[in-house]
Amino acid sequence: MSRAIMLWTGGKDSMLALTEARLQGVAVAALVTFTPPSPHFLVHPLPLIHAQADALALPLYRMTITAPYATSYERALAEL
């Protein structure tokens, strides 16, 4: 069985991807949400995302992304 950490934004697309991964035999070990350093980030409702992760019984990692973004994403993914 494959293991993965899945990108989680809290929307229906994330839930569909999680469902499809599980149906294909992927063991999703954790969720990850990428955010900028600002505490006023409103695109992903962080309290809701934490509640979703709790309901799914999956750990949630919040990874801070800064400019230059490509390098920052690569660094965050390497950490995971």
Q: What is the element string, with H for helices and E for strands? A: EHEHEH
Structural category is alpha/beta
Shape: globular
- Residues in β-strands, percent: 25-35%
Low-confidence stretches: none
Key phrases:
80 residues; alpha/beta; three-stranded parallel β-sheet; 3 helices; 3 strands; 42% helix; 26% strand; globular
Task: Note down, in words, how this protein is organized.
By secondary structure, the chain is an alpha/beta fold. Helix content is 42%, strand content 26%. It contains 3 helices and 3 strands; from the N terminus they run E-H-E-H-E-H. It has a 3-stranded parallel beta sheet with strand order 1-2-3. The two termini are 19 Å apart.
Short description:
The protein has 80 residues and is an alpha/beta fold.
How are the elements arranged and paired?
Layout: E1 2-7, H1 12-23, E2 26-35, H2 46-56, E3 60-64, H3 69-79
Parallel strand pairs: 1-2, 2-3
